[in-house]
Write a structure and sequence with these properties.
The protein is an alpha+beta fold. It has one domain (about 1-185): PK beta-barrel domain-like (M1 Pyruvate Kinase, Domain 3). It is about 25% helix and about 25% strand. Helix 1 (about 80-90) links the parallel strand 6 (about 75-80) and strand 7 (about 105). Helix 5 (about 200-210) runs antiparallel to helix 6 (about 215-225).
């Protein structure tokens, strides 16, 4: 373990929360227009917000099997990625929170942070648990049928924090790196093993041995290493009712 206490010039640029709501388009003939319930739509908060073990105060998820909980308490996305998406998908109105994240951070990318990294943010202490695995709700939000796949393939996924110490957090808080346990397992490297090196059983075993990786990812990787069969991602990426891309 590398023990640190350094400001790495990163900060929470914007903090967003939102509760689940049901979305109806009125034109449900295309699967992308079907009625759906989501906590994806989040509003920026200007003051301090309480960060508990499983959620920010005022935040919620519709699908509690795949989102939220102690290992996915905070969804984090780098602000630096938004210009890329604005250019590549032709959307000029992307704002912090456009990808459903709680923290839009500035100064850190997936290649800069590692599984198990512990950060002090405001009063809280948080730890990176896994990369974000984008799902069909991202595609449905922006009506771009392959957007979740694009995010996964580019590695511009963001990541999740688990909460080690509860406390108030807010926009403008610095991210202070306190401990680094696995400098070899950046979020980018973990994404590479999960989504690209799918036939590398040894890499799957090695990543699964990282004790600070979320239990769900560790289980998936151990299963892959034993069976040689990668996870079927169709339901996560395409959602209910196949969406042709």
């Amino acid at each position: 373990m590398i023990v640190l206490k350094s400001d790495i010039s990163a900060a929470v640029r914007s903090l967003q929360v939102g509760l689940p709501r049901t979305i109806r388009s009125g034109q449900e003939t295309d699967p992308i227009d079907q009625v759906w319930t989501t906590g994806f739509f989040k509003a920026p908060m200007s003051g301090l917000v309480w960060l508990g073990r499983t959620n920010l105060d005022g935040d919620g998820q519709a699908d509690l099997e795949n989102h939220g909980g102690p290992e996915k308490a905070v969804n984090v996305y780098p602000a630096e990625h938004y210009p890329y998406w604005a250019q590549s998908i032709g959307l000029t109105n992307l704002q912090p929170g456009s990808f459903g994240e709680n923290f839009t951070v500035e100064g850190l990318l997936e290649s800069d942070v590692c599984i198990g990294d512990i950060f002090e943010i405001g009063e809280s202490l948080v730890q990176i648990s896994q990369p974000r695995q984008p799902c069909w709700k991202l595609a449905r939000r922006w009506r771009i049928k392959d957007l979740a796949l694009r995010v996964q393939e580019t590695g511009r996924t963001g990541w999740y924090f688990r909460v080690r110490r509860e406390g108030h957090v807010g926009t403008g808080n610095r991210l202070v790196l306190v401990e680094r346990h696995h400098p070899n397992w950046t979020v980018s490297a973990a994404n590479d093993v999960m989504h690209h090196r799918t036939d590398d059983a040894q890499a799957a075993r090695d990543l699964a041995d990282c004790i600070y990786l979320s239990s769900r990812w560790r289980t998936k990787l151990k299963r892959r290493a034993l069976s040689g069969i990668p996870e079927n991602t169709a339901s996560r990426l395409e959602g209910p009712g196949k969406v042709e891309v």
